[in-house]
Specification:
alpha/beta; six-stranded antiparallel β-sheet; six-stranded parallel β-sheet
Amino acid sequence: MHGGVVLFRGTGADAMRYVEADRSRADDYYLGDATGISYAVLDASGEANSRPLSSDDYAGWVDWISPDTGERMGRPRLAGSDRQGSPRFAEMVINTPKSLSVAAALHSEVSEALDAAQQDALSEIQRWLAQHSVTRVGPRGKQEVVPIEHMQIVGIRHLTSRAGDPHRHIHMQVGTRVWAAGKWRALDTAAMFKQQGTLRALGAAVIAASPELAAVLDKHGLTLDPVTGEVTELESFNALMSKRGAQVWKNLERLEAEWEAAHPGETMGPVVSSRLTAKAWAFERPAKKPTTTREEAEWLTELREAGYDPETLTRKLVSAPAQSDELSVQEIASRALDRCAAGSSAWTHHDVQEHVTRIITEHGVRAIPEELRELVALSTTLALEDCFSILPTGAPAPEHVAHLTSLRVVQVETELRDLLTARTPEKKQRYHDVSQVADRLGQQLDAGQLDAAAAVASSDPLVIVEGAAGAGKTTMLATAIAAANDHGRRVRVVAPTKRAADVAHQELGVRATSVAALVHAHGYRWNEDGVWTRLTPGATDPATGATFTGPPPGAVFRRGDRIVVDEAGMLDQDAALALFTVAAEVGATVALVGDRAQLAAVGRGGVLDMAAQIRGRTFDMTEVHRFTDPDYADLTVRMRDRRDPGDVFDQLDQHGLIRLHADGDELQEHVAQNALYGETITVASNEDATRLNERIREERIARGLVDDAATTTGRDGLSIGAGDLIQTRRNETALGVANRQQWMVQRVEPDGSVWVRDAHDERKREHTRRLPAEYIREHAHLVYAATAYGVQGVTAPASHTILSDGINGAAVYVGMTRGRSENALHVIAESRAEARAQFIDAMERDNADRGLADATERAVEAVRGLVDEGTVKLVNTRVAQLIQDAEKAERRAAWWERVGARLDQQHEHQQAEMDEQTAVIQAETEAATRVRAEVREPLTVVAMQEGREHLAALDQEAAAQTKLNTAGRFGRRAARKDHQAATTRARKSRARVADRWGTTPRDADNLTGWASRAAERLAARDPRVIEAEQHAEAARTAGEEMDMRHHSERRALHADIFGAEQVRRDPLRYEFTHPDREAANAGRAAAIARQEATTLRSLSVQDAAARITAQREAAERARLAREARARKLRASHDLLSESRRRTGLHNDVPRL
């Protein structure tokens, strides 16, 4: 995903033309179809409600008319003399590398997988934006930065580029009207500009991480490089697709122009358009039948003719993909923080996430969006823990404000300041006059140049020279070097870049090198994350494995040597610390020569600012010599000061240097046709440069200045042929090339290598170099147009600067000071008033890093006028708290419901067990009773019989006794004999009955009872009864054990649910808990909280705040009343206690 945020300020009709122009007529999606435009409304959590949008609704949306309600979301401000019109939407493009688009054109499965991956990327970006977008509420000086509540995002999908070649991309257009604090408000687009790096990284990460896309590509023998996002087997064919598409585009434009000329006043229909498209493809290729770009066979044919053969495809090796759980979160966080510190003195929350996301992508992670989101969030949170804020305590700290830094940043800047302070002489230095040296060299120096040259030539430990663009710094340095040599002092010129050093070498004729090369020779090393270390002699170089033996002879200094740092404004702090450390070690003096008004360091900068502030003396060369027009020279000095940019614009307009253009196409066409070779063209970004370079190259081909027959491909995906102007982007000593050095291509070899010569070498004898195809493909690109970093230091006959939302004041100043005779400013605007407003905005933009002190001032300024505790925050916080309370209560209710379900489940299970055991006990008891009855009944009969017999024997004994007592003398003997016999029988009966039944019956009245009890006792000893009773007792014991087990199970479940310690302390509380009642109470609490949140949302911010304040005051009064009652009760208790103490009534009065 490339490109940044672009603000669109036109009307809905303008927007329709804009998005139509960005795709080919051969695209499968047409904006006239509802499916071509997706529309999503997102809430603050990122949840989206999406649907298609008609063309009319889209145009209305751009004009701030809600597609959902038809209401106006505001009225766009029109452009004025000093301000631009309201931005209608902020756009970013989610696109894919060319080779991946080609793969999608070749294979429908890849197309579907890529569509899904791009949609995932769009969804993730939308979700992130909804969660992090903000607006401002309140009067100036008391504004709150508040999160949006709803926002609208449009996605427009294209399959092809304007030229018709495969180029999958989605225009993501973020509406600048958002709903927050009860009304439609303006999206804080300044915050979104700070978020764009994170958005780009997130979109690229989601597509690169897609497991489905990688799997489908692999199925077709293709490999997705997770780091570059390119399909490695198709990457070499990128230029072919672009070149062929451009050819078709030109053919189609010609055919359409011919048709319109032949059919005046008619509108071309889709059938005619399709036929002309087919002719455009077949033009100059008679062997091919007309076809359409919708057929995959067409693209396959194009590739086959270029050498692509899927049957003999050789897979290319890339680093193995990683799973999200295989990466160390700590390592990702640490590396992200290293990159933040290397890039700037202070950073935002979003910067941290951007670096985290890019590092994860570089690891080649394969993961679905949810897994990727979690990994990014964890790593970002961990990295943020090691940051601290440079804002004052208690100040508002919005996420998009750069207020975070680290100890590493503080340490490096502190050490650098100490070294600079140590070089500040206590006494004012006196310098020798160098005017005679200048005369000897034939140079005419102004007073400022002479003073600066004298200082540089001196032994002053630290000299700072600043000069405006075109002030003659090079001429000054030539005199200074000669004067220093006259006094026996050697001068070594270094520069932040090798290209600048090479320019210095060519212009001054002295040895020059880059700062990096110099400190590298003295043992300094740095990794890809910008972490610097230093080797000691004898240590092993981790990059080469060789032993470091110290600096080579060419890098050895002697005491008193002068180190001149040219373009010192671009020197970063890490390199400066290394340089000043080396200078201190060898006893060399340092002169910093640069211009703080021009481009700053790419990384953490501010070296020139710190040096000027600490040294307290700066030589400023303000007399400009470069320009042929003295008035323009004076104007550039005003431009440098950034004062009154509106008046500067007016002066530029009076000089005839303002060029207005209706749109980007017209601007590119004008520049391509009118810019001459050797003139510089400055644009805001590399993406802008690529688009313009492509158009300029087409024009140069048409004029016969560039050979398009034999070409190779640069890193920008554009073709390179003989006659092209290219720029190398990596220092390669072996090849003799430097980063940002410009070259004229002389010849392209069949293997893709090129022969080049230095485009700015004015020596009569040209030195050519051969650059391998691999280097060209990875580290070179067209450079007809370039960013300000690409043109700084260049002097040209004329220059063109393209004004846009992405360019800042330093870049405009650099671009507008390159040309000797003319410096044109190109602006896309409907009027000069609108152009003037754009110029003012650009000149006031300053992205330069100038150290911690400046970063702190900027952070404080960024939050000036903001309040952290306003009415909106009060309401939002209360609503959020209510929603949180409601959600918590709902979770509690759901938890109690789950608890109830678990307890009910246990109870049902235990009850079932108990019922079953009760049935067993009852059955065994009944069985024992039945057996006892069965045994007892016959025994009862026998006992009755034997009892009667025993009673009969007793009766007989009694009768015999009576007879004996009444017998006479003659009958006594017989009576005694009968009595003895009866007594013997009774005794034997008693013994027999007692022995068998345990007891004997007393009389006939209790015989039945006796017989039953006797039978019962005898039956109890019966084995059958004993066995039955044992079964019954075992069942009862099992029931008791089950009851104890159930109690333990309930206690264990309570411990699992409520916590073992809580249950241990108060077991009865949980035995008698009522989950249904608790769930109902929690549900009611949730409903009350949600109702209150709804009520607050329905009110205006002021009314809602008043309601909250009133509720809090009522709650406070209630709290105070409770405390008063408690104090009163305590006082009564104390009084009663005192009364008891005095009266001694301790036991009669109950204690409270």
